């Protein structure tokens, strides 16, 4: 048990350090940059807190905005065996158990020619104050060490990303112009 706790702590520290070093502040948008951009994201539909039953995930909406603004390629992070509940409370409990187990769900699909990307936007909903476990599987599956990595998340009050973008899910769903403005303002602060 002590080893598992130690490994979890080490993983969180390494992820945090990589995140801090990969985040860059500057002035410049990506509209005409020479960077090859990937927007990888994990998102959920079904019943979501604050927005009800949704057909397009909150994070998917923000990911599409980022891809449109940057000319980036979209890649949805999906699990091979999607047994996540559609009902909100059941999903919250499922995510809690996954986090407690430090699970690494198998992913469906791979990114072809991952090496061609030099900028990676990584998006996810905030689950239990953290990234969902499939996002950890994604991070474990690809070498991000030579990439500029920028995090963004959606949440309903429990989300924050140091030097990244956090957008309320209800804003992504119901106030798209406000969400787009927030995305555009954030992109202008990045050194791309």
Q: How would the global form be characterised?
A: globular
* Fourth-level CATH superfamily: Flavodoxin domain
Strand content: 15-25%
- In the residues, how many domains can be counted? 1
Please give the count of helices.
6
Biggest sheet record:
5 strands, parallel
Weakly predicted, low-confidence segments: 4-29
**What's the architecture, going by CATH?**
3-Layer(aba) Sandwich
Give the structure's gist in a few sentences.
The chain has helices at residues 2-22, 58-70, 88-100, 133-141, 169-174, 176-189; strands spanning 37-41, 46-48, 52-54, 73-76, 78-79, 107-108, 119-125, 148-155, 165-168.
Note the main attributes of this structure.
192 residues; alpha/beta; Rossmann fold; two-stranded antiparallel ribbon; 6 helices; 9 strands; 40% helix
Which helices and strands, and how do they pair?
Layout: H1 2-22, E1 37-41, E2 46-48, E3 52-54, H2 58-70, E4 73-76, E5 78-79, H3 88-100, E6 107-108, E7 119-125, H4 133-141, E8 148-155, E9 165-168, H5 169-174, H6 176-189
Parallel strand pairs: 1-4, 1-7, 7-8, 8-9
Antiparallel strand pairs: 2-3, 5-6
Helix pairs in contact: 2-6
């Amino acid at each position: 048990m002590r080893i598992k706790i130690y490994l979890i702590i080490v993983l969180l520290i390494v992820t945090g350090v990589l995140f801090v070093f990969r985040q860059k502040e500057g002035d410049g948008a990506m509209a005409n940059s020479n960077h090859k951009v990937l927007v990888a994201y994990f998102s959920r539909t079904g019943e979501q807190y604050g927005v009800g039953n949704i057909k397009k995930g909150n994070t998917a909406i923000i990911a599409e905005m980022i891809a449109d603004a940057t000319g980036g390629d979209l890649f949805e992070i999906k699990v091979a065996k999607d047994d996540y509940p559609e009902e909100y409370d059941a999903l919250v409990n499922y995510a809690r158990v996954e986090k407690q187990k430090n699970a690494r769900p198998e992913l469906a699909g791979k990114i072809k020619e991952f090496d061609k990307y030099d900028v990676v936007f990584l998006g996810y909903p905030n689950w239990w104050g953290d990234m969902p476990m499939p996002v950890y599987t994604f991070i474990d599956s690809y070498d991000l060490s030579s990439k500029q990595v920028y995090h963004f998340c959606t949440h309903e009050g429990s989300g924050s990303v140091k030097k990244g973008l956090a957008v309320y899910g209800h804003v992504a769903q119901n106030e798209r112009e406000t969400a787009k403005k927030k995305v555009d303002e954030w992109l202008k602060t990045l050194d791309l």
